Amino acid sequence: MTHPLLPVDYRPSENEAFMNPVMREYFRQKLLKWRSELLHDSSETLVHLQTETVPEADITDRAATETDRFTELRTRDRERKLIGKIDSALRRIEDGSYGYCEDTGEPIGVRRLEARPIATLSLEAQERHERIERTQRDD
Questions:
Q1: pLDDT at position 47 over 50
Q2: What is the pLDDT of residues 116-130, one digit of tens each?
């Protein structure tokens, strides 16, 4: 289902006005689709965990099953946090701050947003934050 504002084959480009209405809608749709996929995966995990309650007789099988469950739950927890970041990005689209660096206020850039639509920092600001973190960790 496409939005009337969004042409079917639209891809944002550096050659158009940054965060124009079409570009904003493109990223809104991209975030909504990603969120929907994560929620779908999450509900499948719940069904899978609920239906797989037969205890394993073999201790090795039981250990493998528990490891699989733990990994699945950890993945879902990461996805839950990701959904929170997607929701935050959707709110930024609504308030007009989406696509702009939280540190500098400068545009984050189309290519970075395509790769990481939940980005809140420009590449330069992200690298600066990572350098600071590494320095603090090394102290």
A1: yes
A2: 999 999 999 999 999
Which residues are CB-contacts of 57 (< 8 A; sequence separation ≥ 6)?
Answer: none
**Tokens, residue 63:** 């250990």
Ordered structural domains, the chain, with CATH: 18-98 (1.20.120.910), 101-139 (no CATH)
